[in-house]
Fold:
Amino acid sequence: MRLTKNQFLKAFAATIVLLAVVRAFFPSIAKPSNKEKKSENQVQDISNDVQSQPRASLQPIDGKLKKLKFFKPDGSPVKNRIISVPNYSKAFPDLNDVQLEVANKYGVKPVTDRKEAERRKTELVYVASSPYYYVDKLNNSIPYLVPRAAVLLNDIGRNFFDSLQIKGIPLHKFIVTSVLRSEADVKKLRGHNGNASENSCHRFGTTFDIAYNRYKTVQAPDGPTRRQVRNDTLKWVMSEVLNDLRLNERCYIKYEVKQGCFHITVR
Structure:
C-alpha cells in the first residue's frame, strides 16, 4: 500500500513527536555509549599528539625553532658555512678535577697493565680504527674504553662526517692519540714527562684525546686525488661538533695547547 504525500508527512511528524516524548522521559538514551566515548577520546588524543609535535622541517636550536635548509629551490645542495667557536680555551675549559669527578663515577677501577685490561672485557670495550676515526700508534696508553665513552667517541666521528658533508668539505678521519692508561703507562709517562698527572682521568677508561692539528684523508684507492683541506678548517668543524656535544652535557672537554689535542671525558 503506497502512502500519499500528505499521509507520509503526517506519519513523519508523528514519529518526530514520539521521539521527542521518549527523549523527554528517558534523557539518557541520547547520551553516547562508553564505547563511543572511548573512540571519541582516542581521536582527540591523536589530534592533540599531532598538534603538539613539531613540524618535520623544524628543529630546536639554542631554544628556538629554526628552519633548516639543505637544498636550494633548484635541487642543488646548500653549502652551510663554518662557524667554529670564538675561543677554544673558553669553549673547552674543563680542568682535570672537573673531569676526574665523572671519571670516578662512570669509570672502572684502574688496571695494572694491558693483560689485566684484556681480562676485564666485561667492563671495557676494545677501541680500534673505524670508518669515522683513526687510532694512532699508542705509546703510553692501550685501546680500551668503558662502553659509555666508546659510544661518545663513535658519535663524535659520525657527527664530524655529517658536518663535513653538509659543508661541502672532503671527508677526513680525526685521530685518537690517547685512550686508557694503565698504572704501568702512568709510571712510564711520568718518568719522562713531569707534567703528566698521577691521577689522570685516562686511568678510568672514560677519557680519550683527539688531535686537532692532523687528520686522515678519506680517499678511494683508485679514485681521483681529493682536494687538500687545511687542518685549521677541519679543526673549526671539529670544534663545532664538540661544542654541541658539550653543551648537550655529553662530555667535558679541555683544550690542550701543548699536547695539540682535545682532552675529552664522557659524562
Summary: The beta strands are 58-61, 64-67, 125-126, 133-135, 144-145, 172-178, 207-217, 251-256, 261-266. The chain has two domains: 5-52, 81-266.
